[in-house]
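A reminder from the course coordinator: this example appears on the midterm review sheet, so study it carefully.

Given structure:
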């Protein structure tokens, strides 16, 4: 007999692989990815010198990152620190350095990565700006990446502390990790977020290295609730979803960064594609692979002419709305992971063609190769449309996933996730 979750899963509409553009093989030479990687690295090298070991802002102003300037958030009169390790995006800069180090083996990157690890150790020890599910983004791409690349034991230990901290955000009755804020904040209590699917690998990793199943159990419960409640019957996704923290009852979907509560925020859908595939990788539960395909189909069926997504999938060509290139870079990485687990050749071809064609378009039309003054990699993202923050600007996660996509297309890459 089928369980309730399986019936719900089957009720979700799968639009299928309907975008004819992705039926044909790319007609360009794969050398283009190396060219794109080289262009990206020249920007990274400039930033390595420019940021001097500090962390940049989340998104650019006029296509240029500055240094994060912030005080210690627990301090009433904080002393401002240039290049501070605060916010949810600093790990993307360390991740960019790790990808660049892997490709170049240039020791100058390693030196800065190690300095960043010291900063991440300090951050988790003193719990600086850690009241968030984003701990996974921060620690997978810094401490876990460094541990995997160099065997840095202090980095491993900090990543385990980070995993323990993420577990403190787990709401047992609902089986979810709370997105933001204090666990008793009435406005944030019991809220899960689709982005958090990308933070679950920190917990899967913690279970692997400690042998303790509690990390994986929490991640798996959260992923199942995302499958059941964040995904709508038409294969689109909510940004966030509220639960009653006492009874565990599922309450309502809601958006903060999307166009409307019922629209499909492009970056959320992209987090879902990659995040569900990663949950498949660590649980081998086939429903998550299916879910990755289903979300990918919706995303790919709404690609505009140049294949780079608008910031909300309710919009397409002619809308006058901005693109969010970062959504496309995240989705491409999810697709390239997805195809590694597919046995059907038609599916493999379709999703590989999509990943390659979108990446080529990002390089041709959205990369900073045409803007010598920019210190970013991928232009034309949207951070927070409603607040007019980082609109039509580059952002650190867009840059990171663009470089991860190019890495995946040029070598056999061992995941940091
Ligand atoms: N995770 C926050 C964002 O995607 O903007």
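Designed residues:
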């Amino acid at each position: 007999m089928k369980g309730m979750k399986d019936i719900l899963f089957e009720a979700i509409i799968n639009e299928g692989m309907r975008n004819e553009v992705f039926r044909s093989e790319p007609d360009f030479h794969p050398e283009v990815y190396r060219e794109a990687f080289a262009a990206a690295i020249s920007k990274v090298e400039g930033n390595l010198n420019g940021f001097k070991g500090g962390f940049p802002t989340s998104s650019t102003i006029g296509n240029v990152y500055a240094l994060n300037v912030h005080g210690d958030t627990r301090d009433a009169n904080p002393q401002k620190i240039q290049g501070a390790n605060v916010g949810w995006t600093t790990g993307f800069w360390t991740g960019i350095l790790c990808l660049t180090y892997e490709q170049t083996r240039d020791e100058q990157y390693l030196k800065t990565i190690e300095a960043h690890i010291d900063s991440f150790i300090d951050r988790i020890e003193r719990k600086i700006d850690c009241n968030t599910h984003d701990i996974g983004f921060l620690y997978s791409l810094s401490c876990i990446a460094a541990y995997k690349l160099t065997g840095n034991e202090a980095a491993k230990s900090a990543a385990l502390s980070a995993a323990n901290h993420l577990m403190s955000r787990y709401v047992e009755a609902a089986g979810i990790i709370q997105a933001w804020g204090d666990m008793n904040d009435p406005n944030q209590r019991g809220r899960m977020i689709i982005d958090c699917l990308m933070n679950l690998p920190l917990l899967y990793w913690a279970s692997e290295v400690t042998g303790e199943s509690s990390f994986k159990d929490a991640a798996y419960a959260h992923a199942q609730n995302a499958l059941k409640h964040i995904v709508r019957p038409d294969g689109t996704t909510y940004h966030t979803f509220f639960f009653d923290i006492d009874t565990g009852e599922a309450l309502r979907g809601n958006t903060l960064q999307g166009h409307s509560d019922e629209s499909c925020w492009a970056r959320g859908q992209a987090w879902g594609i990659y995040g569900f595939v990663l949950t498949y990788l660590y649980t081998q539960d086939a429903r998550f692979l299916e879910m990755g395909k289903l979300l990918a189909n919706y995303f790919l069926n709404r690609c505009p002419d140049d294949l780079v997504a608008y910031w909300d999938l309710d919009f397409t060509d002619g809308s006058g709305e901005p693109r969010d290139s970062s959504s496309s870079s995240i989705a491409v990485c999810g697709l390239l992971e997805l195809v590694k687990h597919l046995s059907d050749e038609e599916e493999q071809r379709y999703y590989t063609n999509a990943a390659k064609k979108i990446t080529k378009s990002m390089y041709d039309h959205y990369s900073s190769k045409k803007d010598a003054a920019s210190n970013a990699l991928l232009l034309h993202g949207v951070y927070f449309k409603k607040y007019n923050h980082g609109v039509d600007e580059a952002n650190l996660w867009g840059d990171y996933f663009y470089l991860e996509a190019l890495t995946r297309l040029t070598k056999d890459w061992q995941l940091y996730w």
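The chain has a mean pLDDT of 95. Residues 73 and 129 are 6 Å apart (CA to CA).
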